[in-house]
């Protein structure tokens, strides 16, 4: 009986240590780089330099696009642009970030969309070149594509 208590006590202690280890384990993962620059072409809506900013928390990530070269043709209310950002995975296929997050923007303002949520896996390497950003504004679809690879390089998620 005494041996059974010792074994039970040891098992409980090991379990408590495991739970404590999980409690102190890091939950947020890192993405590198945290921001990258692309040259975007949005057809008749303009184009030029844009910055993509990435964040990651485990298997969830967000991307935000900001550009002073791409301008809104009309005033836009907060969270009214339906955006779909498609990134190309180095391993093949694509990863989609989508949502309706944007600040209110006056006519002629620089464009900002995001943070747009998406799902990533450890080791995913995502590049804007070959993908697209589609924004639906008042029923009009604006499609932007990168004209070259992003700099300093693809987003790599851990």
Q: How would you describe this structure to a colleague?
A:
It contains one helix and ten strands. It is mainly beta and 158 residues long. The chain has one domain (31-157): Sandwich (Immunoglobulin-like). Strands 1, 2, 3, 4, 5, 6, 7, 8, 9 and 10 form a ten-stranded antiparallel β-sheet that branches. The longest helix has 23 residues, at 2-24. Mean pLDDT is 85; it is low at 3-28. Keywords: Signal.
Secondary structure elements and their pairing?
Layout: H1 2-24, E1 31-32, E2 35-41, E3 47-57, E4 60-71, E5 82-89, E6 94-99, E7 110-119, E8 125-137, E9 140-146, E10 155-157
Antiparallel strand pairs: 1-10, 2-3, 2-9, 3-4, 4-7, 5-6, 5-8, 8-9, 8-10
Which labels suit this protein?
158 residues; mainly beta; Immunoglobulin-like; 1 helix; 50% strand; globular; disordered N terminus
């Amino acid at each position: 009986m005494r041996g059974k208590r010792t074994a039970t006590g040891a098992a409980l202690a090991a379990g408590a240590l495991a739970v404590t280890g999980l409690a102190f384990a890091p939950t947020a993962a890192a993405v590198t780089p945290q921001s990258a620059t692309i040259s975007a072409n949005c057809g008749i809506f303009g184009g030029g330099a844009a910055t993509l900013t990435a964040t990651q928390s485990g298997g969830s990530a967000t991307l935000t696009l900001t550009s002073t070269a791409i301008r809104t043709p009309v005033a836009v209310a907060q969270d009214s642009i339906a955006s779909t950002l498609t990134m190309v995975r180095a391993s093949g296929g694509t990863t989609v970030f989508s949502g309706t997050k944007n600040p209110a923007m006056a006519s002629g303002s620089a464009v900002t969309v995001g943070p747009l949520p998406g799902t990533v896996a450890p080791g995913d390497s995502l590049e804007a070149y070959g993908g697209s950003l589609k924004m639906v504004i008042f029923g009009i679809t604006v499609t932007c594509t990168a004209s070259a690879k992003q700099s300093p390089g693809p987003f790599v998620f851990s």
